[in-house]
Amino acid sequence: MGGYRQRFIQVLAYIEVNLDSELDIDKLCQLTHLSKYHFHRQCSAYFGVSVMTAVRLLRLKRAAYHLAYRADKKIVDIALENGYESHEAFSRSFKKHFGQSPSKFRQKPNWDTWNTHYAPILVLRNQAMSGKTNFEVTISDFPETLVAALAHKGSPNRLSTTIRTFIEWRKAHKLSPDVSRTFNLAYSDPTTTSPGEFRFDICCSIPSPISGNDHGIKNKTIPAGKCAVIRHVGSDDSIGIAVKYLYSNWLETSSFKLRDFPVFFERVKFFPEENESEMVTDIYLPIE
Q1: What's the rounded Cα separation, in Å, for the pair 237 and 203?
Q2: Model's pTM, two decimal places?
Q3: Would you tell me how many other CB atoms lie within 10 Å of the CB of residue 235?
Q4: Are the C-beta atoms of residues 235 and 13 closer than 8 Å to each other?
């Protein structure tokens, strides 16, 4: 069974890297050592959805992120970039999975319906990372960093609204990721915290304190100090496993103790500009 598990993890990795290309079924059959007669059935049994549905879900997620966070992109361009031949075909598929038309979703995204459809991909990505013990951990002296921060409290499914607000403010103040580093302060573990108590800050570095504003953006400081660091490459879907490894396996065998500051992330390469498989996030665990 373990052999099959690894084969289908490779299938998912191949799909993610080649999301913009026509799917090469022969290549996927080679990865799983299965004939075409058995590949589709076995893939559906393992993924929980057909391979083509998995591809569609990954493309729709990218399309949804463009709709939610990239207001300058036209809907028809998003449709074509994600393999749809027309605006109408994209709208039908999008509404089926999100419960909203692309234009309605852009105005007020609701991720609840989508999360139900997306669950098999989330499970598979976590299976790919579960039990991993070969994370490379480095020790870094992080410098004191002033950030503009927007606090989110409430269900992780509503985080997109907070992100959109922060992006609007950031654009207005010309603090693009090219000139300003992007951070998240992760106060809560979404797997153990009730949705109403979940806390997460969206931040960017700033050269000097900001003044009061209508967006709710506050000045905060990430303090100087030692951090244990893991560079996570790939989707956020499985980032929690790397965080858990730092708190458990690594910390238990190290000589360090935790500092009084939450784990935080620096976003080095972003989705949807990058494919999810090429996202880069540095995870910092403050220690002493």
Answers
A1: 20
A2: 0.89
A3: 22
A4: no
